[in-house]
Design goal:
The complex is a heterodimer of chains A (about 725) and B (about 325). Chain A is of the alpha+beta class and about 725 residues long. Helices cover about 25% and strands about 25% of the residues of chain A. Chain B is of the alpha+beta class and about 325 residues long. Among the domains of chain B are: about 45 residues, Uridine Diphospho-n-acetylenolpyruvylglucosamine Reductase, domain 2 (2-Layer Sandwich); about 100 residues, Enolase-like, domain 1 (2-Layer Sandwich). Classes of the chains: A alpha+beta (about 725), B alpha+beta (about 325). Chain A: It holds the Pfam family Ald_Xan_dh_C.
Amino acid sequence: MTTATTGGRTTVRGVVGTSRTRVEGREKVTGAARYAGEIPFADLAHGWLVLSTVARGRIRSVDTEPVLAMPGVLAVLHHGNAPRLETDYVGLLGIPPDPTAAVFQNDRVPHLGWPVALVVAENSEQAREAAEALVVAYDEEPHDTRLTGAHPDAYPAAGVMPAETEKGDLDAGLAESPFVVDEAYTTPEEHHSMMEPHAATALWDGGRLEVVDSNQGTTWIQGELAKMFSLDESAVRVRSEHIGGGFGSKGLRAHQVSAVMAATVLQRPVRVVMTRRQMFSLAGYRSPTAQRVRLGADADGRLRALDHRSVSQTSTVYEFVEPSAGVARVMYDAEAHRTANEVVRLDVPSPTFMRAPGEAPGSFAIESALDELAERCGVDPVELRLRNEPETGPVSGLPFGSRNLEACFREGARRFGWDGRDPRTGVRRDGRWLLGTGTAAASFGAGAAPSTALLTAEADGGFTVRISAADIGTGARTALTMIAADALEVAPDRVRVRIGDSDFGPAMIAGGSMGTRSWAWAVTEAARELRERLALGTPVPPEGITVRSDTTAALGSLAQKERHSYGAQFAEVAVDTATGEVRVRRMLGIFAAGRIVNPLTARNQLVGGMIWGVSMALHEEAVRDRVSGGLYAPDLAGYHVATHADIGDIDADWVDDSDPEDPVGIKGVGEIGIVGAAAAVANAVWHATGVRHRDLPIRPDRVLSAAAANGGAAGTDGGAADA
Amino acid sequence: MREFGYQRADDVSGAVALLAADPDARFLGGGTNLVDLMKTGVERPARLVDVRELPLDGIEPTADGGLRVGATVTNSDLAAHPEVRRRYPALAQAVLAGASGQLRNMATVGGNLLQRTRCGYFADVSRPCNKRAPGSGCPAVTGEHHNHAILGASDHCVATNPSDMGVALAAFDAVVTYETLDGPGELPLADFYLPVGDTPDRETALPPGALITGIILPPAPVAAHSRYRKVRERASYAFAIGSVAAALTIEDGVVREARLAFGAVASRPWRAHAAEAVLTGAPADGETFAAAADAELAAARPLPDNEYKVTLMRNLVVAVLTELAEEAAR
């Protein structure tokens, strides 16, 4: 930061790029920051969701009478008496609402853990006791909850991108290739498992619906609730001040909708909070995937043919596509190139966006396959990737924005000590541990969406930014403070950023790694306009001078390009083949992610993603019980996420990645960190042991079984989503 | 959550009397397992009798050279005690391998002995479970069982005992002491946990209403050369998929005395007598160690998805005994 004094006015430049602790950090660590489930309200009633205990069928009866007689019980809402909802609309994200959120509209049960009733009582203990006592009878039907790559009902599905892309003659390309990889990969059902459970309080205040929630976009939820309850958008206000993690899960869910229903029926504030166990069926999840990758290459490792097919699951009531086969559309070109995303409708909850949807599981498959190709061609895995850098978008043909993947690999290889790596497997030992190293590439889209911001020059010389951004733990509030300070050329302590309130106007959600880029754009535009106004020398009136920006037009004029962030992941693992234990000793990620606003929180995001990648590689797996169709042990004792002890020496850094054509230059760092991380770990396990693990997670029993089968291709033992 | 009564007991006889007065009452120690089970509805006590403040928090030597550990000693204090660390190192290691620092600060020795299985079907009141609802069936046998029992189970229940501490206690012939309305009693750990058979809901031989007052660790010089190793699906804060408590006395390259117990393979801490018989008097080498493991695991009856545990336990036994032998040779 440099400070200059010119004519009595202090101007400050260059806060962006310096490390800053969170502006709300003290509030958070002292407990002063209130989260949605702990904000007090007078006359608050508490709702408790009752979830189905069958995986498919119809509700025959809901025996409300005994429960209504229990202490404190105020109401039991169910499909027979709940307010009707509108669901035939398209929301802010351009997709219809997931009926999982549109609760109590009919008697159909599409999955185990589907909300069938809400019990409302004076306190949450009474509500819970009554909810657990509520007898719901079902006419049960046979269910199918098992995904396989060969499921007969799989069909190509689009979601956020085209279902299929194809160019060239794939069969010919593979037939002509001297080296071919043709392997199946699976990833299991994974859950967001953020620290703060979903919680919402709904109340009517002077004819206006207020919802105090924990979500990733207040105007998003405002719009959804307004349409669902047939209200004018101005009659709905959604606030979300602090969010204890989102990862894609904190959108429109059963808790907000049922709270609004109950507040409407009872005409008093009603809070609905999910339990950790309920989150495993109500909060969305990442679908398991069954993927097949076929690669054909020349002797020097250059790709001639590439085929990536991914099958994921969705519910019977909603089509969500985990677009794992989309990775190669950006990353790797070949004359013959085919990618396909397919889904199977099963009797399971609807999956949803989860950190790097598509890229996280897709990169595991394709970056593992590339490692196998490198092995077969005898080409170093880093070199193989550099030889396959495309000139233009492999599918779109569009030019790339800044693409500094090569710089990531060169810098990463240098710092990790990759050069001179012995490609042989199973030869490095440290006591009982076999050691190995692995690498993988990463990419994630760098988009932006229209946003508005309000910026006020206050009479006291301060500035207030108001934008319906969401800080889901990323440090967005701090980043926007820094961006606004630079744009206004003032010190950051003169800038106050208010977020998480739909009254501030439409803005992008915290999602798709697009939040900070989209919001920063709007804040920068507003700052430019405000400075022009102030430059006229008009005195600031007591109510301040407020300008409003809207980036819709500016976004529309941006040239069409392939815009992404990139990364190179490196991992060193230790494997005890006698016990099956795998430990990640060292990990380094080098990223090209545009302009880094706050190195402190950016590193936190990137390292956090990498840690999740380790967790994905080794631990995380929700197991579906085939008989009941529900999850086995759905809690944080049964669903393992990495602990501190699982994480060794891990670091993230970045290379210069400026794009002079881009007016903002920020790409977002929320998701790129997890991409490729699991593949780097799996590739390192192969390097350590000589065994490929194509099914995640790489559990001790899988390592043991593979070792017992004496190497070979024993890494595949058929997981829940076996191909 | 159902409302429940709560009373703090001032002395042992008072605690036993309070429990006897109410058949739906439960003793509350650290609450690290019972309170979780109350939240999920597996346990629905009408009353909790809090015994954590009872004067049972001492660790003292016994006249014959063993140790007496009070029932309310926390897991943390047990693991940190210098005499435990010196004389029974595997016990300290086992306790430290379990749970987290916060939980170990709360959890008590008595409660640890009585903790319930972590089988996911047992914890889910919407599913059948012969242990929780006798006669309702066991979904694990044909369902998810990759971390279930391979030894001593039955068609009625394949759940495992989750304790790490108990595995070391089993190896060291610990004795459980208790108090009832009729006076004190004691049970060797070998008899404390009942076989599964067709009554998996009956887990211990404690008389009804008995309060565990402590454990006695008999003198065992072999235990000074012991260790505990636990394998789990992440590096920390997870229950074992297999564990071993082992102690060896080796003279002139021959095993003079051996203690061996397994965790996460049975409904109770599994004392490996068959393996000990092979070890005793045999050369302290890898061949003996493998033969010992095989002798014990010959009785294993794995299910389709937990066969790996047979390999895991065999490898773990060989690895731990080899480490102990190498240590002794130094």
